[in-house]
Amino acid sequence: MLTKRIIPCLDIKDGRTVKGTNFVNLRDAGDPVALAAIYAEQGADELVFLDITATVDERKTLIELVRNVAHTINIPFTVGGGISSVADVSALLNAGADKISINSSAVRNPDLVNELALEFGSQCVVVAIDTRYVNGEHIVHTHGGRKPTELRTIAWAKEVEERGAGELLLTSMDTDGTKAGFALELTAQISGSANIPVIASGGAGSMEHFVDVFTTGKADAGLAASIFHFKEIDIPVLKSYLREKGIEMRI
Question: pTM for the complete prediction?
Answer without folding.
Answer: 0.92
